């Protein structure tokens, strides 16, 4: 249902809109609280000018190799995924400033990251053994 302006809508329409809004917000809340399903991700279908990408708790066992094609990416959240390591071509994300890896409990190594990264968070990465840093 689309309501163009209040003069076009009846009280019944407004009640339906409120109910729809409540349902959507409950679904949104649930999707952030519960782990997300492992959905196939086609990086090539994402816009190249994308600046922020949140793939937290998507149950990804590996990071897509073509992630580095998102050269405008500035913020990347991969928290809570069960992968062992990041893609070695993360250096292709030349504008990346923030990388969140919290609760990636299987993560063993963080490869060399682009020099643009200002914030790297890897809280509760209990298997982490190696981080390659360059200055």
Task: Report the CATH architecture of the largest domain.
Answer: Alpha-Beta Horseshoe
Going across the biggest sheet, name each strand in turn: 1-2-3-5
Coarse shape? globular
Query: β content, as a range?
Result: 5-15%
**What are the low-pLDDT stretches, counting only 5+ consecutive residues below 50?**
1-10, 12-35
Order of helical and strand elements: HEEEEEE
Describe this structure in words.
With 135 residues, the protein is α/β, with parallel strands linked by helices. It folds into two domains: 29 residues; 99 residues, Leucine-rich repeat, LRR (right-handed beta-alpha superhelix) (Alpha-Beta Horseshoe). 17% of the residues lie in helices and 12% in strands. The chain contains one helix and six strands; from the N terminus they run αββββββ. The chain has a four-stranded parallel β-sheet, with no helix packed on it. A two-stranded parallel ribbon has the order 4-6. The chain is globular, with a radius of gyration of 19 Å. The N terminus is likely disordered.
Topology:
Blueprint lengths: L10 H23 L18 E3 L20 E3 L20 E3 L8 E2 L8 E3 L8 E2 L4
Parallel strand pairs: 1-2, 2-3, 3-5, 4-6
Summarize the structure.
With 135 residues, the chain is an alpha/beta fold. The protein has 1 helix and 6 strands. Helix content is 17%, strand content 12%.
């Amino acid at each position: 249902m689309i309501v163009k302006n209040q003069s076009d809508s009846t009280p019944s329409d407004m009640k339906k809109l409120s109910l729809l809004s409540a349902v959507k917000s409950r679904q949104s809340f649930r999707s952030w609280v519960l782990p997300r399903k492992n959905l196939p991700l086609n990086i090539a279908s994402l816009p190249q000018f994308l600046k922020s990408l949140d793939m937290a708790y998507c149950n990804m066992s590996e990071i897509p190799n073509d992630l580095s094609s998102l050269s405008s990416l500035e913020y990347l959240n991969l928290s809570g995924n069960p992968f062992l390591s990041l893609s070695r071509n993360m250096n292709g994300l030349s504008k990346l400033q923030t990388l969140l890896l919290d609760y990636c409990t299987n993560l063993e190594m963080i490869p060399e990251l682009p020099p643009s990264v200002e914030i790297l968070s890897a809280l509760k990465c209990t298997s982490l053994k190696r981080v390659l840093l360059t200055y």
